[in-house]
Amino acid sequence: MTGEARTIGAAGSDLSGQNNPSGQSNLPGMKPLDLIIRLEWAVVAAVAIVFYAWSGVSWWLFGLLILAPDLSMFGYLGGPRTGAIAYNALHILIVPVLLLLVGYLSGHAVAIAVALIWIAHIAIDRALGYGLKLPTGFQDTHLGRIGRKRDGLSP
Question: How far apart are CA 20 and CA 7, in angstroms?
């Protein structure tokens, strides 16, 4: 290190605006560590979907519920703080993992299936770069800002 201060954000990303030390990137604008983390989440999603297939529960249930956690976005009608609370409540792994455990211990196949769908949804979101929301606005997440970067000249 040369003594300069750096700000490290979510998942170890460098927020100082400088390139990573190697200067390499696997995708435009994406650091290697960010890519690895996204790939890990993609694997979690794939595993959840494979286990869902093994559960023998109807794919209709999967299709019906895969986007259900996103209904929490209606919380943004109450403002960014309320929206972030509602969105985050359905996009953290604690509840679906507990539901998966309870379903497994009780032998309740539908509980297991719902938990796996929920976990798959969260993992797909993370793999695509969508994180937990900050109370400042929908675009502000724990993984960084989502959406297109605005030009200095555009409104």
Answer: 12
